[in-house]
């Protein structure tokens, strides 16, 4: 049975702490930012990079995935509406936590170069 709510968030926090180490890249799920402790921890312990992209780009990328139809929705709403709502809820938190904000609409090689330069 999948974990939900606070139990899932607690496991997420424990996993974040367990994998945090010097010179380690940790790619988190987008919801990790919802817990204040996680935001503070990531900002204090690591270098947080927000790969920022508009809703249209995110939706196009999600729809292009081979398993797009298997992805569960968070809200049961159409994908573009769901992504817009989730981003509206989280964007300020991502920005507040990030040490660097990278425009993720650029070519992958350019994004990588900017991350390395950060």
From TrEMBL:
Entry superkingdom: Bacteria
Keywords: ATP-binding, Kinase, Nucleotide-binding, Transferase
Keyword Electron transport annotated: no
One annotated Gene Ontology cellular component of this protein: cytosol
GO MF terms, alphabetically ordered: ATP binding; shikimate kinase activity
PROSITE patterns for this protein: SHIKIMATE_KINASE (PS01128)
Protein name per Swiss-Prot or TrEMBL: Shikimate kinase 3
């Amino acid at each position: 049975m999948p974990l939900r709510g606070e139990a899932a968030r607690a496991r997420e926090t424990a996993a974040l702490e367990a994998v945090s180490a010097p010179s380690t890249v940790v790619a988190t799920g987008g919801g990790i930012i919802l817990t204040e402790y996680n935001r503070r921890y990531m900002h204090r312990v690591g270098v947080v990079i927000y790969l920022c992209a508009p809703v249209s780009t995110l939706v196009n990328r999600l729809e292009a995935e081979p398993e797009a139809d298997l992805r569960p929705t968070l809200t049961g709403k159409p994908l573009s509406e769901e992504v817009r709502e989730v981003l509206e809820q989280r964007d300020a938190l991502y920005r507040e936590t990030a040490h660097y904000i990278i425009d993720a609409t650029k070519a992958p090689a350019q994004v990588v170069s900017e991350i390395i330069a950060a």
